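FORM 12-B: Structure-to-Sequence Request
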């Protein structure tokens, strides 16, 4: 790499994330990154962006990538990184979305200056990345109850009320609660049952629930699998209360185990799946883990 290209950083930002708060502070962000020794190239995402093409075009002249947005933006950038074949370039995160589960797990502050300080310290750790049906995910793959909520919630409502918008939309779905028949196969466990929801976690946080998978780690080469059995709405609500308290592990309404993968999930029902807050693939889902493959800046 040419000396003029050293510490050259590609900043990819979502202009609508966080009610557009990031673009209002773009100059400040660029200035702070420059103070940390980076030459900054800025790319503004659009709905039809092919981020892998952008990354492919820049891959020989950058040595750092920063994604500014929520979990959905990070998801798109990570998939672009894999498609462009540049998993050796470290990824920084500036969390400005409705959902910042990935940043929260990694200990990245949700304010611009704090997040940039993490990038400036240049402390890098390689983390595990999941993959299902050719789609990569950093944090979570799920299916069933409420997994379509992030895809159907109005953007303006998300920006105005934050994560509350997801919860309100989820409550709206409860009266239509129906069990789904699934088969989940992996070396560690086989499940064939009617369930409400399955969650395959790489990190410990999802949907804002910080204690959802207390044993989960993004560096252990394993997924944490959480399966919600078919129960009444009242019982389900009591389980969510336990999750908030971190007291749900061992509850008879749940199946919880760890798996190094691969995991096969079969379902004949037309239910929604979710990957890092984005619309997921159709069944069957074939899920595997790539241990310690992606370098990210951590606190």
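FORM 12-B RESPONSE
SEQUENCE OUT:
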């Amino acid at each position: 790499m040419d000396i003029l290209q050293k510490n050259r950083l590609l900043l990819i930002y979502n202009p609508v994330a966080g009610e557009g708060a990031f673009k209002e502070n773009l100059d400040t962000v660029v200035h702070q990154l420059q103070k940390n020794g980076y030459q900054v190239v800025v790319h503004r995402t659009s709905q039809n962006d092919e981020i892998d093409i952008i990354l492919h075009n820049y891959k020989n002249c950058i040595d750092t990538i920063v994604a500014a947005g929520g979990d959905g933006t990070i998801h798109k950038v990570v998939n672009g990184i894999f498609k462009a074949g540049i998993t050796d370039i470290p990824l920084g995160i500036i969390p400005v979305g409705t959902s910042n589960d990935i940043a929260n797990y990694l200990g990245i502050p949700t304010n611009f200056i704090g997040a940039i300080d993490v990038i400036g310290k240049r402390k890098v750790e390689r983390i595990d990345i999941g993959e299902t049906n050719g789609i990569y995910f950093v944090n979570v793959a799920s299916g069933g109850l409420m997994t379509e909520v992030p895809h159907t919630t109005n953007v303006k409502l998300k920006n105005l009320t934050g994560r509350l918008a997801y919860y309100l939309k989820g409550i709206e779905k409860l009266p239509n609660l129906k069990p789904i028949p699934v088969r989940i196969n992996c070396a560690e466990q086989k499940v064939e049952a009617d369930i409400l929801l399955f969650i395959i976690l790489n990190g410990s946080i999802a949907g804002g629930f910080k204690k959802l998978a207390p044993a989960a780690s993004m560096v252990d080469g394993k997924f944490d699998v959480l399966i919600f059995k078919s129960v009444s709405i009242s019982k389900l609500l009591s389980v969510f209360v336990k999750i908030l308290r971190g007291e749900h592990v061992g509850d008879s309404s749940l199946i919880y185990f760890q798996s190094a993968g691969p995991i096969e999930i079969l379902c004949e029902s037309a239910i929604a799946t979710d990957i890092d807050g984005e619309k997921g693939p159709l069944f069957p889902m074939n899920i595997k883990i790539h241990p310690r493959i992606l370098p990210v800046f951590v606190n």
